[in-house]
């Protein structure tokens, strides 16, 4: 999960079917059902906080997710809409932040599942369950030259990175004073465009979205033993309540089906993301659940 917010809104594919929308503060109100009376769910007996409704937490982190007027959009929203459709569930969206996302599941119990590109980690797995993973993330390098290696960063000049990114500790001794930290993508992008930086580091998918309207190139960082994320890429999955294993298992089975039938790969392409980010079945099977 990256902690930054892009300045560029990424428009998602058309939402699948009509979805009932709920804003923060109204999450407990069940919307009128839009599910056909003859809809047959892929799995019987699934439960959600609001009967018949999948309540989704949505942070601002395109291209994964973002609020979109009274709705939501992004690659993960597309996936979740497909899951809800398969299980004959209406959809409600609740704006969240990365600070309150997990508590919205575990403490406030206002969302069934949260979106936004969450990394699967052992620490988080102590608090929430995870579906099977969908895609990898990695460090993206943004530059005019198309730099893709840590070696190139050593000679490129001043490099920006977001505060709190997992690679900062690894890169600090490599880049020294040339590594400058920023609150987020917005501030970092501004300094890159005005020439104060010669390169910027961000989550790869986030960077692709953020710099699509510029002349800058975004490249996934090539493997370098000095920077852990380039060697051991984090997996992204949907956090769910540990108390609702049935929902997690049902969604995981559907996601594995999307992996096999090419749905996930097509969605990656729709968002200009490479097929290499798709977590293969054998790796997904070993993920924390």
Structural class: alpha/beta
Number of strand segments: 14
Uncertain regions spanning at least 5 consecutive residues: 1-30
Q: What topology, given as strand order, has the largest sheet? A: 10-9-11-8-12
Q: Which series of helices and strands comes N to C?
A: EEEHEHEHEEEHEHEHEHEHEEHHH
% residues in beta strands? 15-25%
Count of helical stretches: 11
Using only C-alpha atoms, the radius of gyration works out to 19 Å
Helix % is: 25-40%
User: Average pLDDT, to the nearest integer?
Assistant: 90
Query: Which geometry do the CA atoms define?
Result: elongated
What characterizes the major β-sheet? 5 strands, mixed
How many angstroms does the end-to-end distance come to?
17 Å
How would you portray this structure in words?
Helix 5 links the parallel strand 9 and strand 10. 30% of the residues lie in helices and 17% in strands. It is elongated, with a radius of gyration of 19 Å. It contains 11 helices and 14 strands. It has 289 residues and is α/β, with parallel strands linked by helices. The strands form 5 sheets. Strands 10-9-11-8-12 form a 5-stranded mixed β-sheet, with helices on both faces. Strands 4-1-5 form a 3-stranded parallel β-sheet. The two termini are 17 Å apart. The longest helix is centred in the C-terminal third of the chain and has 17 residues.
In short:
This protein has helices at residues 75-86, 101-106, 122-125, 150-156, 168-175, 185-193, 204-210, 228-231, 245-261, 263-270, 281-284, and strands spanning 53-58, 66-68, 71-73, 90-95, 113-114, 129-130, 135-136, 139-143, 159-162, 179-182, 199-203, 217-220, 235-236, 239-240. It has 289 residues and is an alpha/beta fold.
